[in-house]
Amino acid sequence: MSATAPEAVILIRALQFRPNPATAADNAFQAEPDDGETPDETAAKALAEMDAVAEALRAVGITVHVFEDEDHTRPDSVFPNNWLSTHAGGAVAVYPMYASNRRHERRTDVLEMLKSTYRVQTIIDYSGLEPDGIFLEGTGAMVLDHVSRVAYMARSHRADTNVLERFCTDFMYEPMVFDAVDADGVPVYHTNVIACVGTDVALFALDMIPDARRRQEVRERLEVHCRKVVELTEEQVREFAGNAVELSGRWPDGRRRTIMAMSERARRSLRPDQIAVIEESCEIVAVDIPTIELAGGSVRCMIAGVHLDPRPAREPELTEAVEAIAEEPETMDGAEAASELEPAG
């Protein structure tokens, strides 16, 4: 398994999708549906787009775990990467969310699936920080370099540096924090709209980091291990070119293929020379999701990658007694975790 590119993903099939009014104030990427379009019509379009993403990923040999959500009070549940991340070595993180109507997107059935299907040793839950007004919205707030063990994060009220430090201690990453703003000086709400870090290529809007010295430091860290950096413009970021994710697929004969998943809108915004650099190491899989992008996120936001080892298939003759003594993962908060968690690898 690639450290960066998971072979399995989690998608949420949100039957009641709509742009979330509770996040519109600080998400400059959000937009309203066309005038005259009913909520049911918007939801139906989004549902078709979610199914298209799942089909496109399965077509290139990626395992897709789909969970349905019929709850009309969870308009952003299509974006599970904000509350959940998984990590090599058997660790799962659960995150504190900024918008109060997003906090019940966290689902025990998703965690139970991970525990039963994959080797989960530890669940570290930071969500108890929400009452204190402290937030870190998962791999939306952070973009993780799994090769160099760096957590890139643009400061915002959805991305608290103290929680980042705790995460980095617990999961053994180096924090790299910076400010990132648009042309009007508005802070970027999530790091993953301006950056995607893959194994051999990274897409990054470096010019949105106003501090020239910090910009160069980020560039140098990205280029470790001879990784190529595709520099995105702010205009491309607004087309969601940064909101991509590297995944591991399979050819029909079982050979591995490296995928860069993004939206069709994002792909159209890239120049031919940028596409050529990406395709030196990745096969681009692009899906048109204009309705979902109204909510201010794109394909990366839709995907919670599974960086866990699968459990071996159990033989039918295994008894219930054996099942009962199967190892249960320990759940702890981030303060306890540093001394308990084994190094991820």
From TrEMBL:
One of its GO terms (molecular function) is transferase activity. Pfam families: DDAH_eukar. It comes from the Bacteria. Coiled coil: none annotated. Residues 325-345 are annotated as: Disordered. The keyword Metal-binding does not apply. Keywords: Transferase. NCBIfam families: citrull_CtlX. This is Amidinotransferase. It comes from Agrococcus sediminis.
